[in-house]
Amino acid sequence: MSDETNPEATPATETPAADVPMEAPAEAAAPAAPARVADPKDEDTLVLEIPHGKIVIELRPDLAPLHVERIKTLVRRGFYDGTPFHRVIEGFMAQGGDPTGTGTGGSDLPDLPAEFSSPQKARFQRGTLGAARTNNPDSANSQFFIMFAPSSHLDGQYTIWGKVTQGMENVDKIKRGSGGSGMVQGPDKITRARILADIPTDEA
Question: Of the residues 41, 95, 100, 171, which has the maximum number of CB atoms within 10 A of its CB?
Fold first, then answer.
């Protein structure tokens, strides 16, 4: 979808017998804050920070491995930090991922081949993330869109690479555009994008 094209074994510890006196420590240590337990899914979880709060996205390498790898590569470069949601259409979708904010920009990496899913496997529902492209099916690069509502006419026509699992209420607050194109004046921007596996446990 572009501006030209309208288009989810620790050892046991011994316990002292009850009748054995034990000295109390002079000063009890403060309990440590619980750490986030690492989960293999963290590598395939994207966290976007926008002015309205966080958006947590489940990446779908089972549907689009090349697109997911591209997203992770760009996120780890800091590519998406500060990029706007330049095209936002009420009841349809919010599009971002273009540093130029024009809808014509992308990364310095090659365009990606289409990884379209059949409607029987995955559909464009509320919260689905898709890869934006031009009329050429193999032109997706860095731009993406998040669906506000289901859009069956996109099924099988655009690559689905993720879905929002938390923070959809924040997606709903993204500033809308005007006119048929949905271009936004003074758009909301992604403050920071990170893969959950890269976020320190005391921040998660």
Answer: 95
Q: How many domains does the chain have?
A: 1
* List of residues 6+ apart from 143 with CB closer than 8 A: 1, 2, 95, 96, 97, 98, 103, 105, 106, 131, 132, 133
Of all residues in the chain, what percent carry a pLDDT higher than 70? 81
Which pLDDT does position 203 carry in this prediction? 80
Give the CA radius of gyration of the chain: 22
Range of the domain at 169: 40-198
Q: What is the pLDDT of residue 202?
A: 81
Mean local confidence (pLDDT), 74-102: 98
Q: CA–CA distance from 106 to each of 2, 110, 111, 141 (Å)?
A: 11, 10, 9, 6
Q: Is position 106 within any domain?
A: yes
Average of pLDDT values for 104-124?
98
Query: Is 1 inside any structural domain?
Result: no
Instruction: Tell me the pLDDT tens digit for each residue of 149-165.
Output: 999 999 999 999 999 99
Q: At which residue do the structure tokens 């500060």 appear?
A: 82
Contact, 158 vs 133, CB < 8 A?
Answer: yes
CA atoms of 78 and 156, how far apart (whole Å): 30
**Which of helix, strand or coil describes residue 68?**
helix
Confirm if 44 and 59 have CB atoms less than 8 A apart.
yes
Asked whether residue 180 is assigned to any structural domain, the reply reads yes
Q: Is residue 142 part of a domain?
A: yes
Q: In the predicted model, what is the mean pLDDT of the chain?
A: 87
